[in-house]
Amino acid sequence: MRFSIGEKNEGVRYVAGAVVFYFVLISFYINIGEDMTPANYLPWFLPVIGALVLFQYGARVRLFSLNHAPHLFAGVAWCVTFPLLYSWSYDTPWYVSLIRLDFLCGTGIFLLLSSLQSLAFDGKKLVRFVAALFAALDFLCLAIPFVQVVYFSIYQHCLTPASLMALYLTNPDESVDFMEAMLGIPAMVGIVFAFLLFLWLCYRGNMRQARHLGAQPLTAGKRAALSLLTLVLAVYIPFFVFPETSIVLSWKEVSAYVAETQEYGAHHDERFADLRLDAPENVLSAKAPGTVIVVIGESASRTFMKAYTPSFPFDDTPWLGARMEDPDFVVFRHVYSCWSQTVPVLQRALTEQSQYNDKEFYNSTSLIDVAKKAGYDTYWFSNQGRYGQYDSAITLVAKTADRAEWVDDSYLFTEKYDENLLAYLPQIDPTRNNFIVLHIMGSHIYYNNRYPASFSRWVNEAGGAATNAESYANSILYTDDNLRRVFEYARDHLNLQAMVYFSDHGEDLEISHNPDVFNFHMVRIPMFVYLSPAYQAAEPQVLETLRSHESQYFTNDMIYDTVAGILCAQSNHYDATQDFSSPAYRFTRDNLTTMLGQHPLTEDVEEGR
Fold first, then answer.
1. pLDDT tens for each residue of 118-171
2. Which residues are 521's β-sheet partners?
3. Angle CA(251)–CA(253)–CA(256) in degrees, nearest 5?
4. At residue 362, what are phi and psi to the nearest 5 degrees?
């Protein structure tokens, strides 16, 4: 086969364009990763250059032509987004081995879309439909890089397994709440407009290539070249490269966690059978029969509670503040959450697993198990929706209760108020021993969606009711009143012997509780224990010990052992050194941590003053 001088010159341009593409991206990687050596990128030089040249030859178009600019944009976005955002977040380069895979994936996406499109246009049928279809494919390919960029624009941090966990376990309603709170309606409208504009530009670019191929149809050789490239890439990219890219590996880590948690139910009966109380005859239900209630709060930070922070301008905790002077209550001053997201916290708070042991959730007994062994009818009532596609760790524990119900019994994010939980209490038999868990919505963002209009005591004239301090204080005030109502009803009608309240985690009023941008507002939480006069008469040393720990430090992943101690239900799955109600409790500010061991409490200098 002979090539004309023009074809030879065009071939040189094809090679030059491919080399420029390759080394521009490699230079970018070297700039953000100083350990990017030739050994990391030269082995892929010839295959990538060959694929880029083959595409240009087959499609009759140069690499940087506007005809396939949408596909090039989508591919380059995959090449650069995660490595760049990671380096900006941590001021350190991403792993070179994964940068290589991001580069190959992005380049492959560009070539696969462009080759497929050229072959589709060559048929000269349904041209506008094909152009629109590939515009939609460009949009889909950009979805993951786009989510990463939006997340970074909000938090100045790249996506991590922790933030992806929240995304995995969320639902559509909660996603809308989050976007409205973090971006605002105008920004969301702007994003939708930008999407539509992008789709239109993609369509226009695709139509350029359609007109180009209409004027210069593909020869059999060029069609064969594109078909070969498409076939190779259609196998190599989705099955070998894409699953190993940086963001997908993080997602797979989350998926593996979810799959692991599902094992909890598989062997629950065996674990329950293995749970043996040390002294069944001495449990609380035998000495002081009645009801025990555990209330799990949401996003309550004691930093923004008047009872804990007298300088906070809004008196949002009048009932809790009064309980600090009540001899039947112990309101703890220095309690922290073990993480800043609900599911990782409660899978530990509700089970043996903690930061301080090597137990796994799926092998752990729960508070529900202990209460059952201690002679209680167990109940779980929640005003939080059931999370996500699979049961979260919380739901798995909840379902082991004798009766588990959700105010909004769906997988949606409820907008019903927490007072709806009170309707379950009259259904409880006051003559029996009852262990009740109430899981409230508390102060979850949107704050102003968490309370009725009658609790809008404070209003910020500047607006922003969804996330300002005034609306947050209103939500805390509403929780304070609901705690009062739960306590008073249970005391008067359910023979209440003990009540425990703690929040899952705290809240920062500017950035919520994202672990990627951690600060201690996100983990400072309220906690109290009520013990009835009958309880105190039966177990006086428990109140004495709790009172002595009132100003000690504690993290809520030890709730399991503490509640087991309050139930007088010590067992072969109990650790007295993690029980805040036990004299054997061994922790101090100096050896406690939060964020699953990443931050010692001694880093909280404001608390230590």
1. 999 876 778 999 999 999 999 999 999 999 998 898 888 899 887 888 777 666
2. none
3. 110
4. -70, -10
